[in-house]
Amino acid sequence: MKKMVLSALLLTVLSSAFAIDKNMISVVSDSNAVFKIYYSKPVETRVKIAIYNEEGERVFQEVIRNREGFVRPYNMKELPNGVYTFEISDNNEVKRFDFNYGNIEPVEDETSQIYVNITRLDQGRFLLAMDNAGHEKISIRIFGKSNELIYSESEMVEKQFAQLYNLKSISSESVTFKVFRGNDVIKEVDF
Fold first, then answer.
1. Has this prediction a pTM greater than 0.70?
2. Domain 2-101 shares a fold with domain 114-190
3. 168 contacts 124 by C-beta, under 8 angstroms
4. Which CATH architecture is the domain 114-190 placed in?
5. Nearby residues of 101 by Cβ (< 8 Å), 6 or more positions away
6. pLDDT digits (tens, 9 = 90+) for 69-123
7. Domain residue spans in the chain?
8. What DSSP designation does 166 have?
9. Which fold has domain 2-101?
10. pLDDT tens-place string over residues 19-59
11. Is the separation of the CB atoms in 93 and 24 below 8 Å?
12. For residues 33 and 77, what is the distance between their CA atoms, to the nearest angstrom?
């Protein structure tokens, strides 16, 4: 029951992100092997999706006819460990998302591994997604250009968590996201 409620909450958060942004393209890890492309442009167009390995060789490609947006899962478990790139292109833009796949040792306990992805959606809006093997308390802090704290929160992450951050009203030209497990920084990204 708890898993169903959390899944519904995650779906609600992601649905809210789509309701706010009509022109979003994002890649989010659903598990260690499944990645989902969220494409929410409400324009009829052909979207080309390609996956490249670290040598730049294309390992997969497809074209999807978009009408109102889509969510497309990609199961990577048949690919060898390494660095990969999703390339998503339509008539207006090309976006690339890099990720490490399979380079993590198997999980020994429920708190030993957490995957964090932070993506800039557009000027001032960011999507943070987390995936872990169990549940634990994670702190999220956002800092401005002069390292001043703009935002801070703690979340109990059980399997998956996603949050859309709208920082358009912040006057800082650059921001830094820091995700903590206890006092340890597990992810730091500058934009």
1. no
2. yes
3. yes
4. Sandwich (2.60)
5. 33, 76, 79, 81, 82, 83, 84
6. 888 888 888 888 888 899 999 988 888 888 777 754 433 344 446 778 888 877 7
7. 2-101, 114-190
8. E
9. Immunoglobulin-like (2.60.40)
10. 334 557 777 776 667 888 888 887 889 999 999 998 999 99
11. no
12. 5
